Amino acid sequence: QMQLVESGGGLVKPGGSLRLSCAASGVTFSEYYMSWVRQAPGKRLEWISYISGSGSAKYYADSVKGRFTISRDNAQNSLYLQMNSLRVEDTATYFCAHMHYGVLPDWGQGAPVTVSS
Amino acid sequence: EIVMTQSAATLSVSPGETATLSCRASQSVSTNVAWYQQKPGQAPRLLISGASTRATGVPARFIGSGSGTDFTLTIRSLQSEDFAVYYCQQNNTWSPYPFGQGTKLEIK
Q1: Cβ A102–B91 below 8 Å, yes or no?
Q2: How far apart are CA A7 and CA A55, in angstroms?
Q3: A21-51: per-residue pLDDT in tens?
Q4: Do B5 and A44 touch, CB atoms closer than 8 A?
Q5: Under an 8 A CB cutoff, do B99 and A104 touch?
Q6: Chain A within 8 Å of B60 (Cβ-Cβ)?
Q7: What mean pLDDT comes out for the span B19-36?
């Protein structure tokens, strides 16, 4: 089972940037697709991006395309989400998760992000 | 874009009884549906994949069924730890993979 720990969340002004990190352990990280899923307060889960094990394939939801970038460093067993041009509606808890054929068996504890002036 | 709709926002059931949670896809997703449980302040936990396959460590009282557009999560002999929010999710087509809006299972 993969253990995941997110970091980097916080308060940022609209238009600002933030980079989330997710440290993985317990598995050979490079073998696994990884994802970011977010949850705004009181709202449903929203899958926003995923990346292949090698990092060569990346997919984004329309709500973040062009503003967010997913990446990974397999040597460091780490997943990242660079968030630019942040909007108030990006306020949410961001979860990193292991993705297996479109299902999410392992999740981190979540990193809260608040976008507010 | 595929939309997942869970028919009940809240379901009130007594401990020891059976809860039946429903989820409908806007188009056929075969059996590519997963169910997750989320408790307050926690990350979601995978319960069911492939519409009916329990994840490792999930008790047998959690039963998933359905195919095409209509799916059900049945929880038998409800225990106190089962009261939570449950989400369905389709993984048939990346559009991206949407979740339902969730059903809160509360104690009656």
Answers
A1: yes
A2: 20
A3: 999 999 899 999 999 999 999 899 999 999 9
A4: no
A5: no
A6: no
A7: 97
